[in-house]
Write a structure and sequence with these properties.
Shape: globular
Structural class: alpha/beta
Largest sheet: 9 strands, mixed
Number of helices: 12
Oligomer: single chain
Helix content: 25-40%
Radius of gyration: 23 Å
Distance between the termini: 52 Å
Mean pLDDT: 96
Number of strands: 21
Low-confidence stretches: none
Bound molecules: ligand LLP
């Protein structure tokens, strides 16, 4: 069983992706190679957009969390699909800007925005800041005043939800470095404080409960807790939010044992609770924003590698070494992240060979996946790692002075380069 409907095999026994022969693409562009299925990205953006339009109030929309994969072309797609973006640094803002994206629908996140970043974002008319701490309010107010602008903001609130996910990617718990906690009473002070600034206009609240979440439950809990909070603030200070941003976090299927998320029904479940809760509290129903990153791009991505050394340590284990590794995909090294691995050039042979697929870095932890079963490869075979569209290119590094792979987009019958392969000259570009 394939984990996504853009994967298949052809008569040459090769793996196909979005209808393309992966072995032919590896030959054409070289490896390592990131592939991205543009139709899949658009399909996911549309799925969020239409479900949110169907079940949430007018003006609700998805924001693509661009930390998942940030390069000019993806912002162009977001712009064409008319969805917002979540950006977390000047680098992401600049990339979006250079792609022609209208920053009015950009939401600027981050737990430690520098003064330079604040200045840059306000100058380029970023629509909203998501304010992460009381101190940041003052910094943004000061800069907005300097530039003669009123900056719209959301306040990032920590709802105290544990979204049953990997600890390193959970963010909604009370002691998180992000946001201001409800549980300690500080979130109310935060809201009260925010209302005092003259150059800041509060549009509402933001929360984010974690990542790789497979059901609506944590989002439903977040609505419950956030609306109770909003109600308390309304009672005390008379302020009612126009927007509630529920963050990102919907999960994707990396391996066959994981479920496939039903975006539409999950959103429907969240909406049901939102309407009920607001009516119980006598609150207006806020516009809802959601910030999916992974679930928009992950299964639109695949990485191709060429096999180099195949090493069999008698009575111990087998290693299949590929021409990339933790430099283009650090997620196993960081999180023990699961992936499906396939010998793309022998995709119709039985996956009987047990091995660890490892990279070429001078680092024992440079592992793509341990103990997988694939068709036995030899030097020169092509290996595909599936579902690499999120947090791979965006987390890539130049460790060991390894150049980053290109991103090739697949659209209909057309394949084209969206990000060029780094060259050796690129690697020394900033060396004096
Ligand atoms: N909104 C906020 C405020 C976030 O912090 C994040 C992710 C998202 C949206 C998008 O979440 P998504 O839909 O992609 O799960 N590098 C890690 C993931 C870190 C996620 C950080 N924040 C990984 O590779 O799994």
């Amino acid at each position: 069983m394939q984990i996504c409907n853009n994967i298949g095999t052809n008569k040459n026994g090769h793996l196909t992706f979005a209808g393309f022969d992966t072995v032919a693409l590896a030959k054409k562009y070289g490896t390592p190679l990131y592939l991205m299925d543009e139709s899949k990205i658009r399909e996911k953006m549309r799925a969020y957009k239409s479900a949110m339009k169907a079940y949430f109030p007018d003006g609700s929309m998805p924001l693509y969390a661009s930390k998942a994969a940030s390069f000019k072309h993806i912002y162009k797609i977001a712009s064409e699909e008319k969805i917002g973006i979540d950006v977390v640094s000047v680098g992401e803002i600049f990339t979006a800007l250079k792609s022609g994206y209208d920053l009015a629908t950009a939401y600027f996140h981050g737990n430690n925005k520098t003064d330079e970043e604040i200045e840059f974002a306000i100058r380029h008319n970023v629509g909203h800041f998501v304010i992460d701490s009381i101190g940041e309010l003052e910094a943004v107010d000061r800069e907005a005043e300097k530039q003669g602008k009123i900056q719209r903001v959301l306040l990032r609130i920590t709802p105290g939800i544990d979204a049953h996910t990997n600890k390193k990617i959970a963010t909604g718990n009370v002691d998180s470095k992000f946001g201001v906690a409800i549980a300690t009473g500080q979130a109310e002070e935060f809201a009260a404080d925010a209302l005092k600034y003259k150059n800041i206009e509060i549009s509402g609240y933001h929360c984010h409960v974690g990542s790789q979440v497979f059901d609506a439950e944590p989002f439903v809990d977040a609505v419950d807790i956030m609306m109770d909070f909003a109600h308390r603030v309304k009672e005390k200070y008379g302020y009612e939010p126009e927007i509630l941003n529920l963050g990102g976090g919907f999960g994707v299927r990396y391996v066959a044992s994981q479920p496939e998320l039903d975006i539409k029904n999950s959103i429907k479940d969240v909406a049901k609770v939102l309407y009920r809760k607001c009516s119980e509290l006598g609150m207006n129903i806020p516009k809802i924003l959601m910030e999916p990153g992974r679930s928009i791009v992950a299964d639109a991505g695949m990485t191709l590698y060429t096999v180099g050394s195949v090493k069999e340590i008698t009575n111990f284990k087998n290693y299949v070494a590929i021409d990339g590794g933790m430099t283009d995909n650090p997620r196993y090294t960081l999180y023990d992240a699961e992936y499906t691995v396939i010998t793309a050039s022998k995709a119709t042979l039985e996956p009987k060979y047990r091995c660890s697929v490892v990279g070429k870095c001078c680092e024992s932890g440079d592992i793509i996946q341990e103990n997988v079963h694939i068709a036995k490869p030899e030097r020169g075979d092509i290996i595909a790692v599936l579902t690499t569209g999120a947090y791979n290119y965006s987390m890539a590094s130049n460790y060991n002075r390894i150049a980053k792979p290109p991103i090739v987009m697949l659209r209909g019958s057309e394949d084209y380069v969206a990000v060029k392969r780094e060259t050796l000259d690129d690697l020394i570009r900033n060396d004096i």
